[in-house]
Amino acid sequence: MKKALLATSVASALAIGGLTATTLPDRLNAQEQQPGATGLTKPQVEAIVRDYLLANPELLLEVQSALEAKMRTEQAAASRQAISEAAEQIFNNANDGVIGNPQGDVTIVEFFDYNCGYCKRALSDMEALIASDKNLRFVLKEFPILGPESHQAHVVSVAFRKLVPEKYAEYHRRLLGTEGRANEETAIKLALELGADEAALRQEMKDPEIEKMFGETYELANRLQISGTPAYVVGNEIISGALGHDHLSEKIAAARQ
Q1: Which is more confidently placed, 202 or 69?
Q2: What architecture is domain 88-256?
Q3: Fewest beta carbons within 10 Å, which of 6, 132, 154, 220?
Q4: pTM above 0.85, yes or no
């Protein structure tokens, strides 16, 4: 990665002088063939560029910093566009679970996996935000990406939510907060503890719409360039990772403004 950034920085530094990785060889070849035009041959120009960069290595750091800032700006713009184009699917998909105030003035969307350690760690952030902000709508995207056991647990979760929607918030908190890996067995056991009928639950788990829903979520994550959990969408921003209560609070406040 560092080598790639360094190479890109060198290319950017050359570009300051109107050169690129493509045009530089042509420019130097022309100078080698007609040294009288500039008074310098190709080897001389190469030596000058090399010596200058070695004598001023901080230039590469400046260029790299500017390049990274430009990439962040471009990525943010791309994220805003992707969110705008898929806003209805992101914020108002009827297949998603909703915790907090269903009529809240700000919505935060979380892509999560029941076996994601960072999601487990971020559970307290969600609970604190909902407890302190009565106008917060929290949408949960079932995003099983950590193996077959995760997939099984999420199938049970979706089936439970369809059968006992009024207890989904409690179910989500308890399953995500469970020590060890969540799987079909642990997910079903919890569902039964919270009042689900086992026969009805197992029948609901066979619904092909569940797999279709997962597929749509995977496709949406690809569009948003989300590849890990937890990942959040707040307003027109995508936030990757468990960055904590304060960071999310700032993003929620910004979305309100």
Answers
A1: 202
A2: 3-Layer(aba) Sandwich (3.40)
A3: 132
A4: no
